[in-house]
Design a protein that fits this description.
This protein is α/β, with parallel strands linked by helices. It folds into two domains: 181 residues, Rossmann fold (3-Layer(aba) Sandwich), CATH 3.40.50.720; 130 residues, N-(1-d-carboxylethyl)-l-norvaline Dehydrogenase, domain 2 (Orthogonal Bundle), CATH 1.10.1040.10. It has ten helices and twelve strands. Helix 5 runs antiparallel to helix 6 and helix 5 runs parallel beside helix 8. It is globular and about 55 Å long. The termini are far apart. It binds ketopantoate. The site of ketopantoate has 10 residues, from helix 5.
């Protein structure tokens, strides 16, 4: 099989390292596709450098910036940020065959409708609680183990079902805790609830995930943000498996010393995924006429922070 990963950020490199570990023992082929030709070149020469605790391992991989150099993809992981997704989809289009399995790995729910824009490829969706941080081109720190779920939103044909199951086995062979989910929509929303509660608040208050439970007032705000998202999910008929607020509190505790991805973005003055997370909740809430004052305020504050990047830069 020919695997392609688009976007060698922290998650792309993690999936890349795990696939590289497994395909080294098979005839399968792995490529990294990156719009940044300098970085692609670096990864092609040096491979992916995977770091966990005090252990490092280098995985040789093919990488390039031109999809024509890759020929075709049987399975393609889209590991770019949600706001780069449309551009990434166009970029990798030459690789898509009828039945290519196209796996969207974004945070939030803003991208789910893009499944209508994949031509004859077959869309699948993934979500993960693995903790990974990018340390440079092709270099990642695997900060914490998690679980990865992959699944279909629409009923797949048998060939695609088998292809997804094979992909999951290969990830498992590379020692990633992955499994096929028959209710991926529930999983995606479960991850969304946690991101709604943690990401914006930690970015605004410049605090660690665990501090949301100790700084006065933040726990309450987190609870209300998550409850608004839960109301939206209920109105949309999304099956919810466990209490979203309690799940968010549990993640605050289990990742107490983590710098959330949105706080990392703000610290590096990068665009955040606010539109795909709290912004997506607001858009869905409007359709069901649900008020979301806490999420409205979180989005406004993050947008304000993003706007100030350019003011600070031009000073
Ligand atoms: O997914 C995360 C993120 O930072 O985006 C959480 C679960 C909040 C962990 O930091």
């Amino acid at each position: 099989m020919r695997f392609v990963i688009v976007g060698p950020g922290a998650l792309g490199c993690l999936v890349g390292a795990k696939l590289a570990e497994a395909v080294a023992r098979t005839d399968d082929v792995l490529w990294i596709l990156d719009h940044d030709s300098k970085r692609a070149d670096h990864i092609h020469r040096k491979g992916i450098l995977y770091e966990k605790f005090d252990r490092q391992k280098r995985y040789p991989v093919n990488a390039c910036a031109d999809p024509r150099g890759i020929e075709r993809a049987d399975v393609l992981f889209l590991c770019v940020k949600s706001y780069h997704l449309e551009a990434a989809l166009e970029f990798c289009r030459p690789l898509l065959q009828p039945r290519t399995l196209l796996i969207f790995m974004q945070n939030g729910i803003g991208h789910l409708d893009l499944r209508d824009r994949v031509g004859e490829a077959v869309p699948a969706f993934g979500c993960t609680s693995e903790g990974a941080t990018s340390l440079g081109a092709g270099h990642l720190r695997h900060a914490g183990d998690g679980t990865t779920f992959l699944g279909f939103l629409d009923r797949p044909d048998d060939t695609s079902r088998v292809l997804l199951a094979k992909t999951v086995s290969i990830l498992q062979a590379g020692r990633l805790a992955a499994s096929v989910s028959e209710n991926i929509l529930t999983r995606l929303w479960a991850k969304l609830f946690v991101n709604v509660g943690i990401n914006a608040l930690t970015a605004i208050h410049d605090c660690m995930n665990g501090e949301l439970l100790t700084i006065a007032g933040l726990g309450q705000e987190m609870r209300e943000a998550v409850r608004e998202a839960e109301q939206v999910a209920v109105a949309k008929g999304i099956p919810i498996e466990s209490d979203p607020y309690q799940a968010t509190v549990a993640v605050c505790k289990s990742t107490a010393r983590n710098i959330s991805s949105m706080r990392q973005d703000v610290l590096k003055k990068r665009r955040t995924e606010i539109d795909a997370i709290n912004g997506a909740v607001i858009r869905e809430a409007l359709l069901s006429q649900i008020a979301t004052p806490v999420n409205d305020s979180l989005v406004k504050q993050i947008k304000e922070i993003e706007k100030n990047y350019s003011t600070q830069r031009s000073r």
